[in-house]
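pipeline: protein-struct stage 2 | run 1193 | LUD domain-containing protein
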Amino acid sequence: MKNPELNYWNQRLARVKENLEGNNFDVYIAENLDSAKDIALNEIIPALDNIRTISWGGSMTFISTGLFHILKDDKKYEVINTFDRSVSVEEQLALRRESLHCDLFLTGTNAITEDGQLVNLDMIGNRIGAITFGPRHVILFVGRNKICCDLDDAMYRVKNYAAPVNTMNLDKKTPCSKSGFCHNCQSPDRICNTWTITEKCFPPKRVKIILINEDAGF
């Protein structure tokens, strides 16, 4: 068989897509990050009605697509920029609250189970809050490395890979940033505060998921 690894991932992504669709998510498969950007920009967003306000939550996968800068510079949208580090912490929190009322919210997810559940862990909660309720539409960008066998595997991945790597990326002073795994975290820099497990999408197809056939994000 030519390229068995590609064949493996094609089969696995197709299976996860089917299970997510069975849980009422709207799902697309992209070959790579650039393809994911094109699907969002040319297929998903034009099909949505009356999109005026756009915002986003922390996601290395979303940022890596380049879509952040395209949308930020597009004058037909009012952008609620929750990544603006030029404003005070209080203003950043106000922007994050405002983003919960936008028309379209873009972000990623920490993990997806084989049977089609989203698993997330947040510091502040604006990202998981928006995925759960608020914005009229949500687009999630998800690398294939986020797929986990089951809920236990997903939660282990989040605590012992995604969280430590994120703390290192953000220069947080937490035990996991030094050890590489989760343990005894009482740090004021802790980023792991609120879990969500999204078993099904409601209303149906409110959340659109782009599964990316390459590793992306933490």
